Amino acid sequence: MNQPVSLSSLPPLHPRAFRMPAAVGGIVRGLLIGLLAVAIFGPLLNMLIWTVTEAWYFPAKLPVRWGFAFWTKVFRPEAGAMQALWTSLVIAVLTVLLSLAIAIPAGYALSKRDLPLRSLFLLFFLLPQAFPTIAVHLNIARIFYGLGLTGTIAGVMLVHAIQGLVFAVWIASATFAAIGSEQVEAARNLGASPLRAFLTISLPLAAPGLMASAIFVFLISLDEFSGTFFVGVPNVRTLPLTMLNAALEGNYQIASITALLLLVPSVLFMLFVERFLKADVLSGVGK
């Protein structure tokens, strides 16, 4: 008669029995890293190829004629690309200044003052992001038309700031909340006014976080095009609009070159701010 076998009596399975061979594991890791690299850098590489392409016909895998002929077209004064780039930079800088002018007092009040309905205020800044962007910008354009702001840089700056304020206020609020009150209280005990204590203590300590919010707002404004299209066209033409028009016309060379031009100020701005902003500051934002 067979005796029942208890599971506890069986010998334990060795963990190595289920391990993948080292060679297979290396191949799988290499494939995953390769797929990730293609997903991230594939579109960028394709864009770079188009910038030096003069002719590329289907089904050719690579351009049939290389060259820089389209760069000359982009930099012609009549093309308007450089003027569009300058307009984009002006609007982005103005949007940053306006967003910080609102976000700094709003973030300080939301973090340091016992405001009623604080969560409702923070939710209020998120509301424009909760609706489809095109519908929001279309209705903003109708309102701005009545105010005479359509077709003006001021109108485009305002519609960009509506999007940028979401990040600016939330980051500023988190930054001021992370600053202790001991130094401010010490300054007040030494006779400093509330305004002086804010300007000399709180604001310098919050500067790295505020610069992080400036980066987000600058990049959002520089890449924004739907609000610019509804509010600014035809008088205000930014580089994203130029790129969109070229892409819709099937001129991928011009679209890729303008995209590359749009990348330059973003990288320079981030490198400039990176001198003052360290990774640990960014990781602390939002805590």
What are the secondary-structure elements, in order, as H or E? HEEHHHHHHHHHHH
> SS-based structural class?
mainly alpha
Q: How would a textbook summarize the main sheet?
A: 2 strands, antiparallel
Strand line-up in the sheet with most strands: 1-2
Number of strands: 2
User: Count of helical segments?
Assistant: 12
- What integer is the average pLDDT? 82
Shape: globular
What is the oligomer described by this structure?
Answer: single chain
Low-pLDDT ranges: 283-287
Q: Give the N-to-C terminal Cα separation.
A: 67 Å
Taking all Cα atoms into account, the compactness measure Rg is 27 Å
- Name the beta content range: under 5%
| Helical residues, percent | over 70%
Question: How would you concisely characterize the structure shown here?
Answer:
This protein is mostly helical and 287 residues long.
